[in-house]
């Protein structure tokens, strides 16, 4: 299957850059255009016909939910994932009524973003391959937002918050083979060294990370953590 083409509609250029960087890390996707307002988005939709739109709610010239309904009216084959700080129930319901595939609340965390896009990619593959569907396939399509794509989405042990865990995973992933200490992770995500170490040791226990003792010239050896893909 060729890459799924993505249009990003977001008024904050910093967020656009983050979204583009995140998409580039996920196999099977390619950002083909970006827009900072609804009018530009409409023009780009007409000439690019993307598979997926990553859409913010608050745009300078319209609400993202208005653009959702425009897409539904003119480009029914285009899917939408909302990425927004809007948490009002009315806004969420309006987006869901418009048929968005998913609704992700900022701040954006890569692990969560990756899982949602991978879920979307699997949905596209499943629906393209199916000529005829049974009730089980229909149930999977209707409940896709409720299906946990990875074991990490089940209830975490006591003392482990899933959102904080995602932040730790993203921080340790970015360090690559260099490794990182609990103190460095704590500074990166805004927690104490003790809290960061608790999450890092949990990842070691889950075989998602490796811990090594690094001996310096003076003082005690330092425990460095590396992400295990």
TrEMBL record:
Origin: domain of life: Bacteria
Main location: cytoplasm
Alphabetically ordered keywords of this record: Activator, Cytoplasm, DNA-binding, Phosphoprotein, Transcription, Transcription regulation, Two-component regulatory system
InterPro entries the UniProt entry points to: 2C-system_Tx_regulators, CheY-like_superfamily, DpiA-like_HTH, Sig_transdc_resp-reg_cit/mal, Sig_transdc_resp-reg_receiver
Residues annotated with 4-aspartylphosphate modification: 56
Location of this chain's protein in the cell: Cytoplasm
SUPFAM superfamilies, A to Z: CheY-like
Keyword flag Transcription: yes
Domain Response regulatory stretches: 5-121
Name of the protein in question: Transcriptional regulatory protein
